[in-house]
From TrEMBL:
<keyword id="KW-1133">Transmembrane helix</keyword>
<keyword id="KW-0472">Membrane</keyword>
<keyword id="KW-0812">Transmembrane</keyword>
<feature type="transmembrane region" description="Helical">
    <location>
        <begin position="12"/>
        <end position="38"/>
    </location>
</feature>
<dbReference type="InterPro" id="IPR045584">
    <property type="entry name" value="Pilin-like"/>
</dbReference>
<dbReference type="Pfam" id="PF07963">
    <property type="entry name" value="N_methyl"/>
</dbReference>
<protein>
    <submittedName>
        <fullName>Prepilin-type N-terminal cleavage/methylation domain-containing protein</fullName>
    </submittedName>
</protein>
<dbReference type="InterPro" id="IPR012902">
    <property type="entry name" value="N_methyl_site"/>
</dbReference>
Amino acid sequence: MTGARRLRLSRGAARGFTLIELIVAITIIAIASAAVAISMGRSGDSDLEREALHLASVLETARAEARAASLDVRWMPDGKDGGSYRFTGLPPDLIDRLQLNRSWLGEPPVVDIQGATANGRSVRLGPEPLIGAQRILLTRGDHRMTVSTDGLGPFRVQRGSATP
């Protein structure tokens, strides 16, 4: 055989993928599919976590304003439609400027308030620096998140219904 003929045969034999290349490609596709499936399965949990983080941030903002102005400020879910929450005790222009009275980011969660409040339907944020241990349990379907404070530290978010 001549050298040119050998070269043509080897080029013709190199068509297609090897078994190893196919296995590697299938493995990569399987790992990517599993990652997408896992992230989609946890969407309800991450939505509620985003809701809880947003609430903790808004509570801390209102708490700082309550301390600075020496006001008795309270947070409560709005009983009219359950789709929003509101603050009492802050001047209306401050509430509007800081956009504190808001709707929930998604479907309204079931709210259970526990701690040092008179009626169990509000969270006291000031005027004292020490407000007492309080926690807000947010539930949406099978997912639970807790926004809590020990009364001195900031509000923090925890999965489930852990104690503050």
